[in-house]
Design brief:
Largest sheet: 7 strands, parallel
Shape: globular
CATH superfamily: NAD(P)-binding Rossmann-like Domain
CATH architecture: 3-Layer(aba) Sandwich
CATH class: Alpha Beta
Order of helices and strands: EHEHEHEEHEHEEHHEHHH
Distance between the termini: 65 Å
Number of domains: 1
Length: 278
Amino acid sequence: MAKTWFVTGAGRGMGRAWVEAALERGDNVVATSRDMTGVDDLHAGYGERMHIETLDVRDREAVLKSVRGAKDRFGSLDFVVDNAGTGHDGVIEDVTEDEARASMETNFFGALWVTQAAVRVMRPQGSGLIVQMSTQGGQMAHAGLGLYHASKWALEGLTEALEHELAGTGVHTILIEPGAALTEWFTRSLTRSPENPAYADVMATRFDLDPALMPPARVVVDAAMIAVCSEEPPTRILLTDQAFDNVTTAVRERLQQWEAWEQVARSATVQQADIDGS
C-alpha cells in the first residue's frame, strides 16, 4: 500500500529531495513550504499523488490544520519530515534579539508545532514516524553558528524526550544528522550578522569545506531513506563521512573529559551510608 508523507521546507534542497524520493517509491506526498515554486515540475509529473500547500511552520494553527488535512486527503499519515529550517552566521556576542528569535521561531518552535500536529494524528492511529532533520551540529558546535546549534540542540532534546513519551504507542521518531551537503543552506537559507574584527581569526577557519566532497541533497536523502523505511529505524543516524567523523570524535572527547572529572562528579552524590548515619 502507498504510504503518506508530509514534508516541510519542500521547495528546494533537502525538502525537495525528500519529496522526490517518496514519490519515486510510489507513495503520496503533501509538500509544504513558504515558496513552492521549486516543485511545480514534480507536481506536474505525479498528479494526484502529490498535493502542494503554502505553509509557514511558524504559524501553529496553520500547521495543525495542514497536517490533519494530509490524513484526510490520503487516509493515513505515515511519515512527517520536519525539514524547514534556516541558518544564521554570527558570533554570539553580537547577535541581536531579533536574529535570535527568528532562528528559534523557525528551527525550534516551527519544528515543535509540526511535531505536535504529527503526534495528534499518529498517536490515535497507532503508527507513524516523525523524521526530524537535524544536523551534525545538533551534537557538536562550530564558532559563528551558535544560534543554529542552539536551535538544533533544543530540537534533539525535544525529540529524545518525545520518543520516551511515545513508548508503546506505535509512533516513533528519528533524528537525521547529516554533514554539509550541496544545498542552498550556505546562501539563500543563511542570514549573517556584521563581521566583528575581534573574531576574524576564529571565523576565518570555521568552514573548511571542499564542495567537490559535499554530496548532493538527494544522495543524503537516499541514505536517510534506508534508515527511515527500515523495520526498526534508529532514533539517530549520522550521514556523510564528515558528520560521522566529527561527531564521534566530539563525543569521545566529551566522554574522556567526563571520566577525567569522575571523582569530582561523584563527590556531589549523597551516599547511603551518610543517610544511615544521620
